[in-house]
Specification:
CATH architecture of the largest domain: 2-Layer Sandwich
Strand order of the largest sheet: 2-3-1-6-7
Largest sheet: 5 strands, mixed
Radius of gyration: 49 Å
Helix content: 55-70%
Structural class: alpha+beta
Number of helices: 19
Strand content: 5-15%
Number of strands: 7
GO molecular function: diguanylate cyclase activity
Enzyme class: transferase
CATH superfamily of the largest domain: Reverse transcriptase/Diguanylate cyclase domain
Organism: Vogesella indigofera
Number of domains: 4
Keywords: Coiled coil
Protein name: diguanylate cyclase
Shape: elongated
């Protein structure tokens, strides 16, 4: 027997590891060392790992996952990959524990379920099987362990009558041992029927409580009928009770539908009355142009087929702002009107005074004329002449003073008229504010529709082109999420200010929604319109926008469409929107024409 020096053996082991280009790990060192010492591989095996593998192989492994895990453990032990053994052992333990908790492993359970489903049994119809399976899945679908147990019992009850064996009811639905044992079909029907009714009752009660009850606050009669219907729901315990409940439920739903129809007719009637009143007010106050904006906004809202509460809220906010501004301006207008009326009264008084003075002067002239005819004395004629000269001088002085006062009154009247005109224009401008977007100052949807209709009519008459651009700010959601909505609002205002500065006075800018804007370009062909929008893009990217000390480059994508005869505004905007979407897909910060594919 050869005796090996441990030091020489260790040195030779390191040399072999180097020659074989193996890492000097403990496992590699042990294997090479054992080879040099002549120890067989079987003697070097891990006894604990072998015992674990043998123990797991002795357990029933019906599931494929368990068989695969055992095969992986065997391969790791054979390859001496001991670092994998602990993890594989834990996985096997977990699988084995899970299978022990289940009434039946899932693979065999599904196989038995398919088998029981295909078996034809007069006592168990396919509809009954489907209904029972749906109830189990609905009730226990979120709890796998209970679902496994319920499915196991269900499949067992299906298979027992077919095999001619006495069926056992589910553990949850068995009767006391002293009670008579029901037939398999009756016991299953009773248990399944009870479960189904309870689930159905819970779901339906939840729907009634949170879906219908809040809508009946203003309808006492319906609320009482609703309470009776919901109370009747609690007395349902089986299918027969459900059949008795349906007529009462149907009666309540019919009343609810009739009330809904009454509400709809009421809203329609009020809308028609409001439209008639607005039309009459508009006809009676055609000279009051400052009312046009409010009346037009209300008429457009009422003309919509589906009025949304958001539209009403937006119009309400706009009307409140406009009414406040117009109230202030109307007060100033009333003061200016009163001042003008006072000036006119003064003017008339002066004219009346002048007329009275002129009448007195005429009478004095007539008296002096009679005196001249009736005297031959030179001295008397001289006195009459002095009186005539004095009266003429006084008359001239009065006329001069009245002329100055009349000129001053005329100037004051002119100033008052100018002030009234300015206030009336301010009222009209305030009324027009209802068509503007409150955030950006651009036109809103109502203003856009009005201008669009006007420009289409003008394009029809003149035959000149009309182009429409749809602009959408790039990455606006990310900007809002990172810097906040206030920064996003400032970016939109900055963009609108730039558009007003860079574009022509005839171009119309409107906020279409969110970060989207529509620009109407009258008398502009498609190529020129694309160039105008591209120039706006270049102007926007020339400067940085500061947000929280960060310098941002704001860009937008745009689509441009040319209006064609016969199209309405929505048709053109839709084509421009498609072109804008293609610009987004092409890399953003681009302008594409809808007239070219």
């Amino acid at each position: 027997m050869t005796t090996h020096n441990p030091i020489d053996t260790a040195r030779e082991t390191l040399k072999q590891l180097t020659l074989r280009k193996l890492l000097p790990t403990p496992d590699n060192f042990e294997r090479v060392y054992s080879e040099i010492m002549g120890v067989p591989a079987e003697a070097r095996s891990n006894k604990l790992a072998d015992l674990l593998l043998r123990a797991y192989e002795s357990l029933p492994a019906e599931e494929a996952s368990s068989k695969i895990a055992i095969a992986k453990l065997r391969r790791a032990i054979d390859d001496e990959k001991w670092e994998l053994v602990p993890q594989l052992t834990l996985e096997l333990a977990e699988l084995n524990g899970r299978n022990r908790q289940l009434a039946q492993n899932w693979g065999s359970l599904i196989q038995d379920l398919m088998k029981a489903w295909e078996i034809r049994n007069p006592a168990l119809s396919q509809n009954y099987k489907q209904s029972a399976l749906e109830r189990v899945l609905l009730s226990f679908g979120n709890t796998p362990d209970e679902l496994n147990e319920k499915l196991h019992n269900l499949v067992k009850s299906w298979l027992q009558p077919a095999a001619g064996q006495p069926a056992q009811a589910d553990a949850d639905t068995t009767l006391a041992s002293s009670a008579p044992v029901p037939s398999p079909t009756a016991a299953a029907d009773e248990a399944d029927d009870g479960d189904r009714c309870q689930v159905w009752k819970d779901v339906f009660d939840y729907t009634l409580k949170f879906g219908i009850e809040p809508r009946l606050v203003h309808y006492p009669e319906l609320s009482q009928h609703f309470s009776d219907t919901r109370n009747a729901l609690g007395s349902i315990h089986n299918s027969h009770d459900v059949d008795n409940f349906f007529p009462q439920l149907r009666s309540f739903l019919i009343r609810l539908e009739l009330q809904s129809q009454d509400d709809e007719r009421l809203v329609t009637g009020l809308s028609n009355l409001m439209q008639l009143m607005l039309q009459n007010v508009a006809e009676l106050n055609q000279s009051d142009s400052y009312l046009v904006g409010q009346i037009s906004g209300l008429q457009q809202i009422l003309a919509q087929p589906n009025i949304s509460i958001q539209h009403i809220y937006q119009l309400e906010a706009s009307l409140k702002e406009v009414i406040h501004k117009q109230g202030t301006l109307k007060h100033s207008l009333d003061e200016a009107t009163s001042s003008l009326r006072a000036l006119l009264d003064t003017f008339l008084d002066k004219l009346s005074l002048m007329s009275s003075s002129t009448g007195d002067f005429q009478q004095r002239l007539h008296s002096h004329s009679e005196s001249i005819r009736g005297t031959q004395d030179v001295n008397q004629l001289n006195d009459i002449l002095q009186l005539l000269l004095s009266d003429t001088a006084n008359m001239q002085t009065n006329l001069s003073e009245s002329h100055g006062e009349l000129l001053a009154a005329r100037n004051e009247v002119h100033s008052a008229q100018q002030r009234i005109s300015e206030l009336e224009h301010a009222l009209e401008a305030a009324s027009a504010k209802i068509k503007e977007d409150q955030l950006t100052g651009a036109y809103n949807r109502r203003g856009l529709e009005e201008h669009f209709e006007r420009e289409i009519s003008r394009a029809k008459r003149s035959g000149q082109p009309l182009s429409v651009a749809l602009i959408d700010v790039d990455n606006f959601k990310q900007l809002n999420d990172r810097y906040g909505h206030l920064t996003g609002d400032d970016v939109l205002k900055y963009l609108v200010e730039l558009m007003h500065r860079s574009m022509r006075s005839s171009d119309i800018v409107a906020r279409f929604g969110g970060e989207e804007f529509v620009v109407l370009l009258p008398d502009t062909g498609i190529n020129e319109a694309v160039e105008l929008v591209q120039r706006l893009q270049r102007e926007l990217t020339k400067n940085f926008y500061l947000a929280n000390q960060d310098r941002l480059v704001v860009t937008f994508s745009a689509g441009v469409a040319l209006w064609h005869l016969g199209e309405c505004d929505t048709d053109v905007i839709e084509r421009a929107d498609s072109a804008m979407y293609r610009a987004k897909l092409a890399g953003k910060n681009r302008t594409l024409s809808a007239e070219t594919p």
